[in-house]
Write a structure and sequence with these properties.
Radius of gyration of chain A: 26 Å
Number of helices of chain A: 13
Low-confidence stretches of chain A: 1-43
Number of helices of chain B: 8
Structural class of chain A: alpha/beta
Distance between the termini of chain B: 46 Å
Number of strands of chain A: 23
Oligomer: heterodimer
Low-confidence stretches of chain B: 5-17, 195-205, 207-219
Number of strands of chain B: 7
Largest interface: A-B, 34 and 34 residues
Largest sheet of chain B: 3 strands, antiparallel
Distance between the termini of chain A: 72 Å
Strand content of chain B: 5-15%
Strand content of chain A: 25-35%
């Protein structure tokens, strides 16, 4: 009821501020009071609340997707932030590793939370085992380079600089050592939240999600260690577009969680280096968005743009239980490059809002399963030369659940008159090898399976790598009464190549 | 008995230091990633000789024994930081973890310079080093070949949590080994690389340290692999040591 009034008041104050020109200059001294009243909700003003008070405070840093607890402090303090740069090899997808350069050992880097007006004493350490010099440019810093020049640090050394957090908001930080794009592409970014003096409104969950694009010499999901590819980065052709630095970082067992009728706040950043994110949560409408991390809120938003090197705060209420899928709605990035996350909402159904059918597998593909651990196991075994049929079947089962089960069904029975069965399939048994090219090149037109005719289109599953196809088909051949057998990655590669050259020869 | 054997081993390993090999390099006009005039002028490199191998732990141990002022427990802190030679078991023994033929790292610029003087040599200049590193096994200037660049970038993308390989990699056309892909190397003028010849043209001398200016320096995308080495050198002070910074010496012809 009181809401419209509040908006009016806020608008009036905004207008006032706008008329007075640069708000910070005129209102600075007035805002010097150590405890600004909570009602100054037009907190677009910069705030220098005077010198730090009390004992210095060591900032709590958290790894994604976690956010440090709210600051319940009513005075400006000196806050000490210690952040260590660590170069380390980590998985970027199942069975794929990458040498990340990190702030604090994670991608994105540790979440930093301070209060507007705080004096931040920043210590940047560069791990002795690192090869490269690094620095940090915090977009929340007012000063040349955002701290970059003052924090240029060789391996095994530490730099220190101090800044006052004058502006509230959510800000990206990143490494700015040349070549800047390469340092960012390797994962060197994170978020710093400068809380308004009165704090943020209370919510039930706060999460930290940050998108980034990654460039590897190998293809999407090509197994093994993948080096950085500068050419692809310059051409802006990412191999992966990911939330929190790893495919599956917030799906399966790692999904974000909430209960029904709770308020959720996401701090969503975009490290880039190249792509702008069209951030969307499938099945949710953002009740409130602070676009670009700014102070003026937007309401009832479906998709919000997050610039590279920018961030937003989005808030919504959970009404209906189920899995909500976080995507970059430049949608090929979600389903073919990895930009998927899950918010799992538990609670009782609310049929008056939504009838309640789950749509997981349609949207999630192979991310619908809880985890893809068996895929990693198979990739590791393949690299070690110890890959067994059982490894392949286990990996294939997980991949099948995502890619194939939507049409052929999890039990392999297919759907009558639409999608042919794979279970006890006479077509499969007659020529198991043909299955390889059906997967890689698709199948269009009439086929008869187990006495029933099907006339439909299976598109080429060209997004699947050779090793994924070999695992899926080995699983299919050894399930549901099929004759058994095994395909290797090499066999699939040959079949794919032969099928690719065959039509050209005919024409 | 065991100590005696170890001491003998140490002596044996120390011997090659006396006979460090230097390869003759012709020098000449050379297009550096750092133009001589700050714009486009090529660098002039006089003929010089360059150590074919990086200085090893065994060699540096022999040097420290002969010049105790450079022991890690004796060295002045303004000449080498607290990490100086800390990978060794003690001030005058390598220990089991450190191999004699690994390149010595965690040495400061001052210590490297002093070592080279003991070989009646000096550290190479950046241009000399860059000239030597431009070669591959068959060509004096292989920089246009993507394979040459990949070999550098491959090293950048390998984490350095495992032990350093030993020296003795493939030689380039001059007979110089391991110049790319094993360690960073000190150069004589490491702290002058960022100083612009004309600050009115160049703007801020600390070009590579800044986001925007750093991007400007990357206009020639083929150069970034080498520029990253310059960024590394420019991050250091002369007393600094790091896990991956070693050196080799040079002589004027």
């Amino acid at each position: 009821m009181t809401r419209p009034h509040l908006y009016l008041a806020a608008a009036a104050m905004l207008a006032l501020v706008a008329c007075s020109g640069k708000p910070s200059a005129s209102s600075g001294p007035a805002a010097m009071a150590a405890t600004p009243t909570p009602s100054t909700s037009v907190a677009s003003e910069r705030g220098d609340f005077g010198p730090p008070q009390g004992e210095p405070i060591h900032a709590v840093l958290t790894s994604p997707p976690h956010v440090p607890p709210p600051i319940h402090r009513n005075y400006p303090a000196k806050v000490i932030v210690e952040l260590e740069v660590i170069e380390k090899e980590m998985p970027i997808s199942e069975g794929v590793s990458y040498t990340f350069w990190t702030f604090g050992g994670t991608v994105p880097g540790s979440f930093i939370r301070v209060r507007q007006g705080d004096t931040v004493e920043f210590h940047l350490k560069n791990n002795p085992n690192d090869k490269m010099p690094h620095n940090i440019d915090l977009h929340g810093v007012t000063g040349p380079g955002g701290g970059a020049a003052s924090s240029f640090t060789a391996p095994g050394h530490e730099s220190q600089f101090t800044f006052k957090a004058l502006n509230q908001g959510i800000y990206v930080y990143h490494c700015a050592t040349a070549p800047v794009g390469m340092h960012i592409a390797n994962g060197m970014y994170g978020l710093i939240l400068v809380e308004p003096p009165e704090g943020l409104s209370p919510v039930d969950h706060e999460y930290y999600v940050m998108q980034g694009d990654f460039y590897t010499t190998g293809k999407y999901r090509e197994k093994g260690h993948q080096p950085f590819d500068m050419e692809k980065a310059i051409d802006e052709r990412p191999t992966y577009v990911l939330f929190n630095g790893k495919e599956g970082s917030i799906t399966g067992d790692n999904a974000l969680t909430a209960k029904t009728n709770q308020k959720v706040r996401l701090f969503v950043g975009n490290g880039g280096p190249n792509l702008i994110s069209s951030f969307h949560v499938i099945g949710e409408i953002f009740d409130k968005v602070q676009p670009e991390g700014g102070t003026v809120a937007q309401h009832n938003v479906q998709t919000t743009l997050i610039p590279s090197g920018g961030a937003a705060i989005v808030e919504f209420r959970t009404d209906v239980p189920g899995s909500y899928v976080l995507v970059d709605h430049s949608i090929f990035r979600a389903f073919n490059k990895g930009a998927l996350g899950i918010l799992k909402v538990d609670g009782s159904e609310n049929k008056s809002v939504y009838s309640g059918k789950e749509v997981d597998s349609v949207y999630l593909g192979d991310r619908a399963g809880s985890n893809l651990q068996a895929v990693t196991t198979a990739a590791t075994a393949h690299a070690a030369g110890t890959l067994t049929k059982e490894d392949q079947i286990a990996a294939g089962k997980q991949l099948f659940a995502g890619t194939c089960s939507v049409c052929h069904q999890a039990n392999g029975e297919g759907l009558p008159n639409v999608f042919p069965p794979l279970a006890k399939s006479d077509l499969l048994a007659a020529d198991p090898k043909r299955a390889m090219t059906i997967v890689t090149h698709g199948l269009t037109g009439k086929v008869t399976v187990n006495g029933h005719e099907y006339d439909s289109v299976m598109p080429p599953m060209s997004q699947l790598t050779d090793d994924e196809v070999s695992n899926i088909l080995t699983y299919v051949l050894n399930s549901w009464g099929n004759p058994g057998g095994q395909f290797s990655k090499d066999e699939v590669a040959k079949a794919r190549a032969a099928a690719a050259s065959a039509p050209a020869a005919e024409h | 008995m065991r100590a005696l054997a170890l001491a003998c081993l140490g002596l044996l390993l120390a011997l090659p230091a006396a006979a460090a090999e230097y390869a003759a390099l012709p020098g000449g006009t050379f297009t550096s990633v750092l133009p001589a005039d700050g714009k486009a002028a090529p660098a002039q490199v006089a003929p010089f000789r360059l150590r074919t191998e990086l200085v090893t732990n065994a060699e540096f141990l022999a040097f420290v024994k002969a010049h105790p002022a450079w022991r890690r427990d004796k060295v002045a802190r303004i000449l080498a930081d607290a990490r100086y030679l800390t990978q060794w078991a003690s001030a005058d023994t390598l220990g089991d973890e450190v191999l004699p033929r690994q390149p010595v790292t965690r040495v400061s610029w001052f210590a490297a310079q002093a070592y080279c003087e003991s070989e009646r040599a000096r550290l190479p200049s950046w241009y000399e080093w860059e000239f030597a590193a431009a070669a591959d096994a068959t060509r004096r200037d292989a920089r246009a070949d993507p394979a040459w660049r990949e070999s550098i970038l491959g090293w950048y993308s390998r984490p350095s949590t495992t032990a350093l390989p030993q020296i003795g990699g493939a030689a380039n056309i001059y007979g110089v080994r391991d110049i790319n892909g094993l360690v960073w190397e000190w150069v004589d003028d490491f702290n002058a690389l960022m100083v612009a010849s004309d600050s009115r043209d160049q703007g801020d001398p600390d070009l590579l340290k800044f986001c925007g200016a750093g991007a400007l320096s990357m206009q020639d995308k083929e150069n970034y692999a080498v520029l990253m080495r310059i960024a590394m050198l420019s991050a250091l002070k002369a007393a600094d040591t790091t896990n991956n910074m070693g050196f080799r010496c040079a002589k004027s012809d």
